[in-house]
Amino acid sequence: xxxxxxxxxxxxxxxxxxxxxxxxxxxxxxxxxxxxxxxxxxxxxxxxxxxxxxxxxxxxxxxxxxxxxxxxxxxxxxxxxxxxxxxxxxxxxxxxxxxxxxxxxxxxxxxxxxxxxxxxxxxxxxxxxxxxxxxxxxxxxxxxxxxxxxxxxxxxxxxxxxxxxxxxxxxxxxxxxxxxxxxxxxxxxxxxxxxxxxxxx
Length: 201
Prior knowledge:
alpha+beta, Four Helix Bundle (Hemerythrin (Met), subunit A), 2 domains, 5-stranded antiparallel β-sheet, 5 strands
């Protein structure tokens, strides 16, 4: 990234620190981003703009706008399940941790419904998935952990905060469930088809 300030550098106070923001141009794609940093003090004279611009020659921004938004591809997962699963990853990438957990919880329920398990609460749906052989014992425990994390928020209880480690764990194990139910069987079927093709060749 290359700073294209300092003439348009913005500066405003935030508590005891100043926040300076500056436009940058990507050296690869030439797209524009805004980089920002928190500093304790800035010069109060005619050299202010030059000083703020020079700041970026020795420092990297603390944060960027827009943030890098990252979804996920699930080629072997039905679209109506894959889209919310990808959205859980997108929420993670912009630090929307509660939203990521809530979306992951909803994905588990969508998996159950996609496999004909419509009745009962999510607890019963997860047990039914295990009973039908869709998920193994470890995946069952994983799904119940995701359900537990998301339950309070699903019912409007937000008193207990979640952090990035919580959300990352939930989304990672959501992916495990999708692999167990959809992706691994699809990969195995392709391998079996390839093996059968070799026999008949």
